[in-house]
Amino acid sequence: VKNIIVQKYGGTSVGDINRLRKVANRIIKLRNEGNYMVVVVSAMGKTTDDLVKMAYEVHDNPPSREMDMLLATGEQISIALLAMAIEVEGYDVISLTGAQCGIQTTENHKKARIHKINTERIERELKEKGIVIVAGFQGINENKDITTLGRGGSDTSAVALAVALNAKQCEIYTDVDGVYTADPRVVKSAKLIPEMEYKEVLELASLGARVLHPRSIELAEKNKMKLVVRSSFNGNPGTTIKEDVRNMERSVVTGVSLDEDIAKISVLEVPDKPGTAFKLFSALSEANIHVDMIVQNVHRNAINDISFTVAEDELNEALAVTEIYAHDVNANEVTYEENVAKLSIVGTGIVANTDISSKFFESLYELGINIRMISTSELKISCVIDIEGSKEAMNHVHKKFIG
Ligand code: ADP
Ligand code: ASP
Ligand code: MG
Q1: Which pLDDT tens digit goes with each residue over 367-395?
Q2: Distance CA 31, CA 194 (A)
Q3: How far, rounded to the nearest angstrom, does the alpha carbon of residue 112 sit from its chain's CA centroid?
Q4: Spatial separation of the C-alpha atoms in residues 344 and 228, rounded to whole Å
Q5: CA-nearest residue, atom 4 of ligand 1
Q6: What is the pLDDT of residues 281-306, one digit of tens each?
Q7: Is the CB of 151 within 6 Å of ligand 2?
Q8: Taking a C-beta distance cutoff of 8 angstroms, is the pair 230, 177 a contact?
Q9: What DSSP string runs through 335-357?
């Protein structure tokens, strides 16, 4: 099939029946222009959050397989209702779950990765009906169990389908006008960025800007799929994300991100000998836990403290692994903190400008904020700080670098 447009609508965009109708009209308009429409949708409004809450009322550590079974239902509601809203206008349409769409994922629940899409069914339906509505965020694994791709994963479903179907366009519709220099709900002076490179958006998103699921940007970059992020509430052009953007007037810092969903774990008084770090981080990696920043403090002869950060929702699992390790190597104690956040500045110019980091640290100092951990890379500088006051810090840092 040619002339395929893939669109994705997020939770707020399909938050109630009225909005669902507006989305239906957008799809119909493009269909009337001769396009074949593949539309990925998220669960309505806060449905996924509510389902998570319910699960934790029943169980304090819900089995991942059942969690996926539960969460995948949210998207099934919105695809059926959206298909009805289109059908009632007199158009052919069909809704499909991830499994029905041939979205095959890895085994692991709650953060599965798409490894293949068998497009036979969707291509057949597309040819026949012209509009296919797909449940985002979900797929099926080898065992034929339903999996989910991690929170915010519908973006990834959309990009993966756009790539597999060789779509001419992939549009991500959300509740803000595009990608901004910071979360516009936190930083009022944040500016819309009309054009961005994959790697900048990937960095912003990985560091806590939840406007796009990081994996979706990786997939788009790998397959050179142009992405457009725009609002479902107006006709503004939004943000175009592509390979390279030439704009000499851009500031060195493109954006500021804040990630409040991190936790810091410390292993105190670890005997200092070769292999101790290896043991800890290989055990964590075996448990499929992603470790972010790592700091090792040497405080006495042959004794170290090792601190690292993980995503807050992996804290319990990470603690369990770390406790076993601490016992094994005779460390003194394992402690953790949840009231921390990671504040980052992102931009392609960061690596070449030595004064950027000192300006960043200075702006935190101006607010009397203590920096707990620092990490830098070519594209970013991150600081772990207390969660209290972190939004204020974000605003201040944004003002210093962007305005
Ligand atoms: P959707 O349900 O459409 O996927 P999300 O809530 O996942 O929507 O993502 C959109 C939200 O991301 C916005 O409402 C905004 O508050 C937040 N956000 C965080 N950082 C940024 C940023 N740099 N640019 C735009 N939005 C951002
Ligand atoms: N509904 C899922 C979530 O809330 C997936 C998504 O919205 O992208 O995380
Ligand atoms: Mg999202």
Answers
A1: 999 999 999 998 999 999 999 999 999 99
A2: 26
A3: 13
A4: 24
A5: 10
A6: 999 999 989 999 999 888 767 899 99
A7: yes
A8: yes
A9: EEEEEEEEEEEE-TTGGG-THHH
